[in-house]
């Protein structure tokens, strides 16, 4: 019995010892797991930061101009990766262009009319803050500039309406001054033989870049932008004229044009009056600006073609190969077809910036169909075109930034020509 009791005590002590060891091992294991987890958490907090993660800096002040520039750069990069910069170009054959003597001054939104072998080039912007107040004349026979003379003091400088009967040139309405100043209603005629100006009855309301043409003894003025420079006008007025003088005291209201807006070609050929291309909307003067600083607004460029028939009804004809604007004086008539050089097309779908046109278009009057017959030396808008002895000429306007950038940049006075084989 004594021996058995001693053994029981010994076993109890051994059991307690083993239980204690197990407990200590359990605690150690739990502590180890806890410590490992803690170290992992601490370690992960000090891992290198991925460059793609945005870091917010508290109390940081970002300049608004820097924000705008950052957005601009982001859009440009997006445009580069989304679409090629020349997305608006159409396939066209190469033409051999020859550079001729440049105009005495560069011009944007200048206007021109050809009378026989002479191209009369009127006013226009020199820069956005400066406008020209004179006429330059180019002689296609000897390819020289000369015969400069002034315009009337109260005549508009840009966004004119212009037409000729082969001797007298008629100038209607338009914008007076630089930037985005107001339009005027003044109308004049110029005798190209005597270089004398004649005042005519004012237009019923001011218009920017209205479609203008002589037809059946009447001077027709259509569309353009209204007084705020942005809203399209549908109005159509006419007045009887002869030898540079108005035969009536007031303008007559005619059938409205189906779609209003400025910067269109208006052409009379084969007793048919055509209105081609153009846009709705334009830059507007910034509210409260003492210099009428230009402010960008939404514009819609279109490819519409309309014809006014003998019954004074408008007909819709096949559209241009692509939307085109700023082509008021960019056209000539060659072999029963209309040739149009350059212009502006729809805005870039990503950057929303203006895109210039670098193609030469032909509208066949017998079939009423369009074709692209060549490329210009560069993309350009508001060209002033002429045609003489088989040569297609163009001068002035605002050209692109380079072969891979169709946005407008430099205002030029260069003159180019190419031999047409139609």
UniProtKB/TrEMBL annotation:
InterPro entries referenced in this protein's UniProt entry, alphabetically: Kelch-typ_b-propeller, Kelch_repeat-containing
Top-level taxonomic group: Eukaryota
Pfam families named among the record's database cross-references: Kelch_KLHDC2_KLHL20_DRC7
Name of the protein this chain belongs to: Kelch repeat-containing protein
Organism: Jatropha curcas (Barbados nut)
């Amino acid at each position: 019995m004594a021996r058995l009791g001693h053994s029981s005590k010994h076993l109890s002590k051994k059991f307690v010892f083993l239980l204690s060891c197990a407990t200590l091992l359990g605690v150690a294991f739990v502590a180890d797991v806890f410590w490992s987890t803690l170290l992992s958490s601490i370690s992960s907090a000090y891992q290198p930061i991925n460059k793609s993660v945005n870091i917010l800096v508290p109390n940081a002040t970002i300049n608004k101009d820097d924000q705008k520039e950052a957005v601009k750069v982001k859009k440009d990069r997006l445009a580069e990766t989304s679409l090629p910069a020349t997305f608006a170009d159409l396939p066209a054959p190469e033409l051999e262009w020859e550079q001729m003597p440049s105009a005495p001054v560069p011009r944007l939104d200048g206007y021109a009319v050809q009378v026989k072998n002479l191209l009369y080039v009127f006013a226009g912007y020199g820069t956005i803050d400066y406008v020209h107040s004179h006429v330059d004349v180019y002689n296609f026979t000897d390819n020289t500039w000369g015969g400069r003379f002034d315009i009337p003091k109260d005549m508009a400088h840009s966004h004119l309406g212009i037409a000729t009967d082969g001797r007298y040139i008629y100038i209607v309405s338009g914008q007076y001054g630089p930037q985005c100043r107001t339009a005027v209603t003044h109308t004049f005629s110029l005798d190209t033989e005597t270089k004398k100006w004649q005042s005519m009855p004012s237009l019923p309301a001011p218009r920017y870049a209205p479609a203008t043409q002589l037809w059946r003894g009447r001077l027709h003025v259509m569309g353009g932008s209204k007084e705020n420079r942005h809203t399209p006008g549908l109005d159509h007025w006419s007045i009887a004229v002869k030898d540079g003088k108005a035969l009536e005291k007031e303008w007559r209201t005619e059938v409205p044009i189906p779609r209003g807006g400025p910067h269109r070609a208006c052409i009379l050929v084969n007793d048919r009056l055509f209105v081609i291309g153009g846009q709705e909307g334009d830059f507007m003067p910034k509210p409260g600006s003492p210099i009428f600083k230009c402010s960008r607004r939404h514009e819609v460029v279109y490819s519409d073609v309309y014809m006014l028939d003998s019954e004074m009804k408008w007909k819709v004809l096949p559209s241009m190969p692509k939307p085109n604007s700023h082509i008021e004086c960019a056209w000539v008539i060659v072999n029963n077809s209309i040739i149009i050089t350059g212009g502006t097309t729809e805005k870039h779908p990503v950057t929303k910036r203006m895109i210039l046109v670098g193609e030469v278009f032909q509208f066949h009057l017998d079939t009423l169909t369009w074709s692209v017959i060549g490329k210009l030396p560069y993309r350009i808008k508001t060209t002033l075109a002429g045609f003489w002895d088989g040569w297609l000429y163009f001068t002035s306007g605002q050209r692109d930034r380079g072969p891979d950038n169709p946005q407008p940049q430099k205002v030029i006075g260069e003159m180019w020509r190419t031999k047409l084989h139609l």
